[in-house]
Design brief:
Helix content: 40-55%
CATH class of the largest domain: Alpha Beta
Mean pLDDT: 86
Distance between the termini: 23 Å
Order of helices and strands: HHEHEHHHHEHEHHEHHHHH
CATH topology of the largest domain: Rossmann fold
Strand content: 5-15%
Number of helices: 15
CATH superfamily of the largest domain: P-loop containing nucleotide triphosphate hydrolases
Number of domains: 2
Low-confidence stretches: none
Length: 347
Protein backbone atom coordinates (compact mmCIF):
# COMPACT_ATOMS: atom_id res chain seq x y z
CA UNK A 1 0.00 0.00 0.00
CA UNK A 2 1.63 3.24 -1.14
CA UNK A 3 0.80 6.53 0.57
CA UNK A 4 -0.91 9.07 -1.64
CA UNK A 5 -0.60 12.82 -1.17
CA UNK A 6 -3.11 14.08 1.39
CA UNK A 7 -3.65 17.81 1.85
CA UNK A 8 -2.49 19.09 5.27
CA UNK A 9 -5.94 20.66 5.64
CA UNK A 10 -7.42 17.17 6.09
CA UNK A 11 -5.07 16.43 9.00
CA UNK A 12 -5.85 19.85 10.45
CA UNK A 13 -9.61 19.41 10.19
CA UNK A 14 -9.89 15.79 11.34
CA UNK A 15 -7.03 15.44 13.82
CA UNK A 16 -5.77 18.91 14.76
CA UNK A 17 -2.38 18.08 13.23
CA UNK A 18 -0.36 20.32 10.90
CA UNK A 19 0.67 17.28 8.85
CA UNK A 20 1.09 13.51 9.05
CA UNK A 21 3.62 13.25 11.91
CA UNK A 22 4.62 9.69 11.08
CA UNK A 23 6.12 10.42 7.68
CA UNK A 24 9.90 10.15 7.77
CA UNK A 25 10.22 13.56 6.10
CA UNK A 26 8.70 15.14 9.22
CA UNK A 27 12.11 15.00 10.92
CA UNK A 28 13.77 17.50 8.56
CA UNK A 29 11.23 20.21 9.40
CA UNK A 30 12.16 20.31 13.08
CA UNK A 31 14.85 22.51 14.61
CA UNK A 32 15.22 20.05 17.49
CA UNK A 33 15.11 16.42 16.26
CA UNK A 34 15.25 15.15 19.85
CA UNK A 35 11.65 16.30 20.31
CA UNK A 36 10.35 13.32 18.32
CA UNK A 37 12.93 10.76 19.43
CA UNK A 38 12.06 8.02 21.91
CA UNK A 39 15.22 7.09 23.82
CA UNK A 40 16.14 3.49 24.54
CA UNK A 41 18.65 2.20 27.06
CA UNK A 42 21.39 1.98 24.41
CA UNK A 43 21.15 5.75 23.95
CA UNK A 44 22.45 6.24 27.48
CA UNK A 45 25.59 4.37 26.39
CA UNK A 46 25.97 6.62 23.33
CA UNK A 47 25.36 9.76 25.38
CA UNK A 48 27.98 8.72 27.93
CA UNK A 49 30.64 8.06 25.28
CA UNK A 50 29.84 11.33 23.51
CA UNK A 51 30.04 13.26 26.79
CA UNK A 52 33.49 11.83 27.55
CA UNK A 53 34.87 12.77 24.13
CA UNK A 54 33.18 16.19 24.15
CA UNK A 55 34.88 16.94 27.46
CA UNK A 56 38.23 16.01 25.89
CA UNK A 57 39.11 13.33 28.43
CA UNK A 58 38.75 10.33 26.10
CA UNK A 59 38.45 9.15 22.51
CA UNK A 60 36.06 6.47 21.30
CA UNK A 61 35.37 4.28 18.29
CA UNK A 62 31.73 3.18 18.27
CA UNK A 63 29.71 1.06 15.86
CA UNK A 64 25.91 1.31 15.76
CA UNK A 65 24.23 -1.79 14.36
CA UNK A 66 20.63 -2.77 13.74
CA UNK A 67 18.20 -3.66 10.94
CA UNK A 68 16.97 -1.10 8.38
CA UNK A 69 14.54 1.28 10.03
CA UNK A 70 15.93 0.72 13.52
CA UNK A 71 17.25 4.28 13.80
CA UNK A 72 20.94 3.92 12.94
CA UNK A 73 21.04 7.08 10.79
CA UNK A 74 18.81 9.02 13.16
CA UNK A 75 21.23 8.43 16.02
CA UNK A 76 24.10 9.79 13.94
CA UNK A 77 22.05 12.92 13.20
CA UNK A 78 21.22 13.27 16.90
CA UNK A 79 24.93 13.05 17.75
CA UNK A 80 25.64 15.74 15.16
CA UNK A 81 22.90 17.88 16.72
CA UNK A 82 24.44 17.39 20.18
CA UNK A 83 27.81 18.61 18.95
CA UNK A 84 26.20 21.54 17.13
CA UNK A 85 24.30 22.51 20.28
CA UNK A 86 27.62 22.50 22.18
CA UNK A 87 29.15 24.68 19.42
CA UNK A 88 31.39 21.82 18.33
CA UNK A 89 31.86 20.14 14.95
CA UNK A 90 29.99 16.92 14.25
CA UNK A 91 30.88 15.79 10.71
CA UNK A 92 28.26 13.50 9.14
CA UNK A 93 29.11 11.54 5.99
CA UNK A 94 26.70 9.20 4.20
CA UNK A 95 28.41 6.57 2.06
CA UNK A 96 26.28 5.84 -0.99
CA UNK A 97 26.23 2.51 -2.81
CA UNK A 98 29.21 1.78 -5.06
CA UNK A 99 30.91 5.15 -4.48
CA UNK A 100 34.33 3.62 -3.90
CA UNK A 101 37.10 6.21 -4.28
CA UNK A 102 34.54 9.05 -4.44
CA UNK A 103 33.45 8.26 -0.88
CA UNK A 104 37.07 8.41 0.25
CA UNK A 105 37.58 11.71 -1.59
CA UNK A 106 34.49 13.13 0.09
CA UNK A 107 35.63 12.16 3.60
CA UNK A 108 39.17 13.48 3.06
CA UNK A 109 37.97 16.75 1.53
CA UNK A 110 35.21 17.41 4.06
CA UNK A 111 37.40 16.79 7.10
CA UNK A 112 40.20 18.94 5.65
CA UNK A 113 37.82 21.81 4.88
CA UNK A 114 36.62 21.82 8.51
CA UNK A 115 40.15 21.79 9.93
CA UNK A 116 42.09 24.77 11.30
CA UNK A 117 45.72 23.67 10.95
CA UNK A 118 48.67 26.10 10.74
CA UNK A 119 49.96 24.61 7.48
CA UNK A 120 46.54 25.10 5.93
CA UNK A 121 46.48 28.75 7.02
CA UNK A 122 49.99 29.34 5.64
CA UNK A 123 49.07 27.77 2.29
CA UNK A 124 46.17 30.16 1.99
CA UNK A 125 48.13 33.22 3.18
CA UNK A 126 51.33 32.83 1.17
CA UNK A 127 50.30 30.66 -1.77
CA UNK A 128 46.73 31.85 -2.20
CA UNK A 129 45.50 28.26 -2.15
CA UNK A 130 41.83 27.50 -1.36
CA UNK A 131 40.63 25.77 1.83
CA UNK A 132 40.30 22.51 -0.09
CA UNK A 133 42.56 19.64 -1.09
CA UNK A 134 43.90 19.82 -4.62
CA UNK A 135 43.56 16.88 -7.00
CA UNK A 136 47.29 16.23 -6.58
CA UNK A 137 46.98 16.20 -2.79
CA UNK A 138 44.05 13.78 -2.96
CA UNK A 139 46.00 11.45 -5.25
CA UNK A 140 48.99 11.51 -2.91
CA UNK A 141 46.81 10.74 0.11
CA UNK A 142 45.10 7.87 -1.69
CA UNK A 143 48.46 6.23 -2.27
CA UNK A 144 48.51 5.14 1.37
CA UNK A 145 45.64 4.41 3.79
CA UNK A 146 48.01 5.23 6.66
CA UNK A 147 48.77 8.69 5.23
CA UNK A 148 45.08 9.33 4.60
CA UNK A 149 44.19 8.26 8.12
CA UNK A 150 46.93 10.41 9.64
CA UNK A 151 45.71 13.47 7.71
CA UNK A 152 42.17 12.91 8.96
CA UNK A 153 43.37 12.58 12.56
CA UNK A 154 45.43 15.79 12.33
CA UNK A 155 42.48 17.63 10.80
CA UNK A 156 40.06 16.37 13.44
CA UNK A 157 42.51 17.12 16.24
CA UNK A 158 42.71 20.75 15.08
CA UNK A 159 38.99 21.19 15.83
CA UNK A 160 38.68 18.76 18.75
CA UNK A 161 36.48 17.94 20.55
CA UNK A 162 34.79 16.66 17.42
CA UNK A 163 33.03 13.65 15.90
CA UNK A 164 33.24 11.90 12.53
CA UNK A 165 29.94 10.11 11.88
CA UNK A 166 30.01 7.59 9.02
CA UNK A 167 26.64 6.26 7.83
CA UNK A 168 25.93 3.19 5.67
CA UNK A 169 29.51 1.95 6.00
CA UNK A 170 28.37 -1.43 4.65
CA UNK A 171 28.40 0.10 1.15
CA UNK A 172 32.22 0.02 1.20
CA UNK A 173 32.00 -3.78 1.33
CA UNK A 174 30.46 -3.81 -2.15
CA UNK A 175 32.86 -1.50 -3.96
CA UNK A 176 36.10 -2.39 -5.77
CA UNK A 177 38.26 -4.59 -3.53
CA UNK A 178 41.15 -2.11 -3.65
CA UNK A 179 39.05 0.77 -2.31
CA UNK A 180 37.24 -1.43 0.17
CA UNK A 181 40.59 -2.43 1.66
CA UNK A 182 41.82 1.18 1.55
CA UNK A 183 38.76 2.52 3.36
CA UNK A 184 38.78 0.05 6.24
CA UNK A 185 42.57 0.28 6.63
CA UNK A 186 42.27 4.09 6.66
CA UNK A 187 39.65 3.77 9.37
CA UNK A 188 41.87 1.40 11.35
CA UNK A 189 44.69 3.95 11.20
CA UNK A 190 42.37 6.71 12.41
CA UNK A 191 41.11 4.83 15.46
CA UNK A 192 44.60 3.52 16.25
CA UNK A 193 46.29 6.92 16.58
CA UNK A 194 43.49 9.39 17.39
CA UNK A 195 43.99 11.42 20.58
CA UNK A 196 41.45 12.34 23.26
CA UNK A 197 38.51 14.44 22.16
CA UNK A 198 37.74 12.52 18.96
CA UNK A 199 34.66 10.33 18.49
CA UNK A 200 34.39 8.04 15.46
CA UNK A 201 31.01 6.40 14.88
CA UNK A 202 30.07 4.01 12.08
CA UNK A 203 26.57 2.71 11.34
CA UNK A 204 25.67 -0.54 9.57
CA UNK A 205 23.50 -3.65 9.86
CA UNK A 206 24.35 -6.57 12.15
CA UNK A 207 25.12 -8.73 9.11
CA UNK A 208 27.44 -6.10 7.68
CA UNK A 209 29.30 -5.83 10.98
CA UNK A 210 29.85 -9.59 11.00
CA UNK A 211 31.28 -9.35 7.47
CA UNK A 212 33.58 -6.46 8.44
CA UNK A 213 34.69 -8.47 11.48
CA UNK A 214 35.51 -11.43 9.23
CA UNK A 215 37.41 -9.41 6.62
CA UNK A 216 39.00 -6.71 8.80
CA UNK A 217 39.45 -8.13 12.33
CA UNK A 218 42.24 -5.65 13.07
CA UNK A 219 39.63 -2.90 12.78
CA UNK A 220 36.81 -4.46 14.80
CA UNK A 221 39.27 -5.37 17.57
CA UNK A 222 39.61 -1.62 18.14
CA UNK A 223 35.88 -0.99 18.58
CA UNK A 224 35.33 0.45 22.06
CA UNK A 225 31.58 -0.14 22.01
CA UNK A 226 29.22 -1.92 19.65
CA UNK A 227 25.77 -0.43 20.19
CA UNK A 228 23.13 -2.86 18.92
CA UNK A 229 19.70 -1.22 18.69
CA UNK A 230 17.02 -3.43 20.29
CA UNK A 231 13.39 -3.66 19.11
CA UNK A 232 10.96 -1.14 20.58
CA UNK A 233 8.96 -2.33 23.55
CA UNK A 234 5.25 -1.52 23.46
CA UNK A 235 5.80 1.29 25.99
CA UNK A 236 8.62 2.74 23.87
CA UNK A 237 6.40 2.56 20.77
CA UNK A 238 3.62 4.43 22.59
CA UNK A 239 6.12 7.07 23.73
CA UNK A 240 7.45 7.46 20.17
CA UNK A 241 3.94 7.92 18.76
CA UNK A 242 3.05 10.39 21.51
CA UNK A 243 6.15 12.52 20.90
CA UNK A 244 5.53 12.58 17.16
CA UNK A 245 1.92 13.63 17.64
CA UNK A 246 2.85 16.35 20.15
CA UNK A 247 5.36 17.92 17.76
CA UNK A 248 2.73 18.56 15.09
CA UNK A 249 -0.40 19.43 17.06
CA UNK A 250 -2.34 22.60 16.27
CA UNK A 251 -4.84 22.20 19.11
CA UNK A 252 -4.93 20.67 22.56
CA UNK A 253 -6.19 17.04 22.38
CA UNK A 254 -8.57 15.35 24.77
CA UNK A 255 -6.08 12.48 25.19
CA UNK A 256 -2.26 12.36 24.66
CA UNK A 257 -2.47 9.72 21.90
CA UNK A 258 -5.44 11.23 20.05
CA UNK A 259 -6.36 10.43 17.28
CA UNK A 260 -4.70 7.02 17.81
CA UNK A 261 -5.64 4.41 20.34
CA UNK A 262 -3.10 2.55 22.45
CA UNK A 263 -4.40 -0.70 20.98
CA UNK A 264 -3.53 0.42 17.44
CA UNK A 265 0.01 1.46 18.39
CA UNK A 266 0.69 -1.85 20.15
CA UNK A 267 -0.74 -3.86 17.24
CA UNK A 268 1.36 -1.87 14.76
CA UNK A 269 4.52 -2.25 16.85
CA UNK A 270 4.14 -6.02 17.11
CA UNK A 271 3.51 -6.31 13.39
CA UNK A 272 6.59 -4.14 12.81
CA UNK A 273 8.60 -6.44 15.11
CA UNK A 274 9.66 -3.42 17.13
CA UNK A 275 11.38 -1.70 14.21
CA UNK A 276 10.63 2.06 14.45
CA UNK A 277 10.72 2.67 10.69
CA UNK A 278 8.10 -0.01 10.04
CA UNK A 279 5.99 1.19 12.97
CA UNK A 280 5.96 4.74 11.60
CA UNK A 281 5.00 3.48 8.14
CA UNK A 282 2.02 1.57 9.55
CA UNK A 283 0.89 4.56 11.61
CA UNK A 284 1.31 6.95 8.68
CA UNK A 285 -0.83 4.69 6.50
CA UNK A 286 -3.43 4.39 9.26
CA UNK A 287 -3.79 8.17 9.46
CA UNK A 288 -4.14 8.40 5.69
CA UNK A 289 -6.81 5.71 5.58
CA UNK A 290 -8.68 7.56 8.33
CA UNK A 291 -8.69 10.73 6.18
CA UNK A 292 -10.01 8.75 3.22
CA UNK A 293 -12.78 7.32 5.40
CA UNK A 294 -13.44 10.71 6.98
CA UNK A 295 -12.90 9.34 10.48
CA UNK A 296 -11.42 11.50 13.24
CA UNK A 297 -10.24 8.49 15.26
CA UNK A 298 -7.74 5.82 14.26
CA UNK A 299 -9.04 2.69 15.94
CA UNK A 300 -8.69 -1.01 15.13
CA UNK A 301 -11.36 -0.71 12.44
CA UNK A 302 -9.11 1.70 10.52
CA UNK A 303 -5.97 -0.32 11.27
CA UNK A 304 -7.64 -3.49 9.98
CA UNK A 305 -8.33 -1.67 6.69
CA UNK A 306 -4.62 -0.93 6.42
CA UNK A 307 -3.80 -4.56 7.15
CA UNK A 308 -6.26 -5.72 4.49
CA UNK A 309 -4.26 -3.76 1.94
CA UNK A 310 -0.97 -5.09 3.34
CA UNK A 311 -2.08 -8.73 3.64
CA UNK A 312 -0.90 -9.88 0.21
CA UNK A 313 2.58 -8.40 0.66
CA UNK A 314 2.95 -9.72 4.20
CA UNK A 315 1.82 -13.23 3.22
CA UNK A 316 4.23 -13.26 0.27
CA UNK A 317 7.14 -12.24 2.50
CA UNK A 318 6.25 -14.86 5.14
CA UNK A 319 6.39 -17.62 2.49
CA UNK A 320 10.00 -16.76 1.69
CA UNK A 321 12.89 -18.43 3.57
CA UNK A 322 13.63 -16.49 6.80
CA UNK A 323 17.13 -15.47 5.65
CA UNK A 324 15.67 -13.77 2.55
CA UNK A 325 12.67 -11.96 4.06
CA UNK A 326 14.35 -8.68 4.95
CA UNK A 327 15.89 -8.16 1.51
CA UNK A 328 12.67 -9.30 -0.19
CA UNK A 329 10.63 -6.74 1.76
CA UNK A 330 13.05 -3.96 0.77
CA UNK A 331 12.82 -4.97 -2.90
CA UNK A 332 9.01 -5.04 -2.80
CA UNK A 333 8.47 -1.83 -0.85
CA UNK A 334 11.36 0.34 -2.07
CA UNK A 335 11.93 -0.94 -5.61
CA UNK A 336 8.44 -2.05 -6.71
CA UNK A 337 9.50 -5.69 -6.76
CA UNK A 338 12.71 -5.20 -8.77
CA UNK A 339 14.82 -6.00 -10.62
CA UNK A 340 17.49 -4.28 -8.55
CA UNK A 341 21.25 -4.63 -8.09
CA UNK A 342 22.44 -6.46 -4.96
CA UNK A 343 24.32 -3.45 -3.58
CA UNK A 344 21.12 -1.39 -3.70
CA UNK A 345 19.59 -3.59 -1.02
CA UNK A 346 22.79 -3.98 0.98
CA UNK A 347 21.84 -3.44 4.61
Amino acid sequence: MKLRSVSPSYYQKLFGLTRNPFLRSSLVELEDPTSIFSKQWVDDVLDSLAAETMSGVASAFVTITGPPGSGRSLRLHLLKYSYHRAELEGIYQEISAVEGPDAIDSILSTVYERSRGISKALKKLFLGMPDTLTEEELLNLKASPADAGDMIVKSLNSIAPTALLLDDVHNMLYTDERWSFFFFEMLREIVSVMPEGILIVTAMSDEAYDEVDKRFPALTSRVHERVTIPPLTDDEAINLASRRLSAFRSRIPEAPLEPLTEEVIIAANRLAEGIPGKLLDFLAKSLEVATILGRSRVDMYVFDKVMDAEAEILDYIKRAPPRMRRELEIIIRNFNGGPVLLEKVAI
